[in-house]
Amino acid sequence: MNFPDDDTGQVLAEMHQAGIDLSVSHEVVFFQLFEQQAQAKAMADFIKETMPQVSVSLHPDETPNVWDLDCTVSMVPAYEDVVAREQQFESIAAKFDGYNDGWGIEA
């Protein structure tokens, strides 16, 4: 299997090499980071209201004064779909003064 030469392509290639079946649905988690808990909570509330198919988990990051908002979507991790979803979450996070910090599959 060939994947584009970027971060998303590299992650998918590593998953494929590890034996993960990328043709079936997985719980894909998109990570958002915030400096303020209130900002992260505001995005979590927005996601709950507008995207009920997405589950969210808000928790303190390992880094002091940073908050993680994990947005989990059940989906087939096809390259184009992962990129589109990541851009969508990044755009939403920016509205709440946060930013995207990558994605992964729950193992």
From TrEMBL:
Q: Which residues form a coiled coil?
A: none
**InterPro entries per the record?**
RraB-like_sf, RraB_dom
Give the Regulator of ribonuclease activity B domain ranges: 6-104
User: What's the protein called, per UniProt?
Assistant: Ribonuclease E inhibitor RraB
